Amino acid sequence: MSKAITPIKGMPDIVPEQMPYWHHAEAIVRQVLEEYGYDELRTPMLEKTALFKRSIGDETDIVAKEMFTFESRSGISLSLRPEATASCVRAGISRGLLHNQRRRLYYYGPMFRYEQPQEGRYRQFYQFGAEAYGLAGPDVDAEMILMLARIWSRLQLSGLRLKINCLGSDATRERFTAALQEHFRQHEQQLDPDSQRRLDTNPLRILDSKASQMQALIDAAPQIQNYLGSGERAHFDGILQRLETAGIAYDVEPRLVRGLDYYTGMVFEWQTDQLGAQNAVCGGGRYDHLVRQLGGRDTPAVGWAMGMERLIALLALGNDTIATAVPGVYLVSVGDRAARAGLGLLEKVRDALPGVRMIAHGGAGSFKSQLRAADRSGARFAVIIGDDEVDAKTAGIKSLRGGTQTSVAWDDLVPALQKHIAAET
Ligand code: ATP
Ligand code: MG
326 pLDDT exceeds 70? Predict the structure, then answer.
């Protein structure tokens, strides 16, 4: 036997046992997004590296160290997408989806970041995200958050806490950045190497540092709230008022800056204390300049992305199992004649009962061992055929929960199964 090929580090397989959680969460997120009028957009997983450099920013961790980047055969630098907002904007511009329009879009799919893999942090992970274009807010900013609150409640998740902050306009951030530089420069020797480098290039990023020896220094730094202009203040207050009206609790978190450079106004995260170090389940904010920055017209924009692995970890904490709604039928057939007749019969049942899960045992085995397999499959009924049944053109239907067994003619198999399924659901 040759040596098995191991999976790539940080790229998990999602095995069938986990799938009920995924399907449940995916269905609910998609349903709520559709209910709020968001339309799905699917973009490729591979983009030109330049797209991410121009949007997320050269100085961010994501672009500086976390991208899977390689050269195409024709010599262009390509990257697996680390997030999908940039792709939405690129697609929006090149497909004419954004100009002079109000657009509500959502996406779902895998993202790739070369991070240190650990619980809740992977190199391939799934994100749902929503983006709204052409709406200056604060109504749509609040809508984004209400939509997320509805997703949590429909998934029956509690304990998610909303952290919110306002980063302000370019001019505001320039003044704030200068104040930050002054503060951190006075304590330059306490900064880690990354932060020392960022002192000149992007001091805002220092606030996002997770280095523990710098936390006190970061806590003492100037706060953006004190630098906001009156218009920015009013926009932010407008969002907070709408959240209060809707009964959504929040914490204003002056240090929340997010790991991407394109944010301009309100930013937020939903955090939990149930998942250890990986506490952010969802993050987003306003990015009013990105469309122009990527070659489109000035378009206000706001969006968020949620990490599905973390959402599902939360979901699994509160639920040992998620019921699969599909009723199942298992074909038990002993002997070659019965197997052939059974397969044909099952095709007729499939024609008549779409949506019902029907598993043929496939291969040999005694009645007893096939029935054991039927039990293990989770099916509710077994359809049983042996030589005697083939001769009489009948089949047995056995309830795998109640244990009762009846015999029906082949012609009556479909209505009989229908009746059984209706009685048990
Ligand atoms: P973190 O601070 O945990 O690194 P982030 O700010 O980098 O998160 P975003 O870029 O805002 O994350 O992505 C939105 C969401 O996607 C996060 O809140 C998280 O739930 C999820 N996410 C981000 N990176 C990963 C990853 N490497 N593995 C799994 N989920 C992730
Ligand atoms: Mg990150």
Answer: no
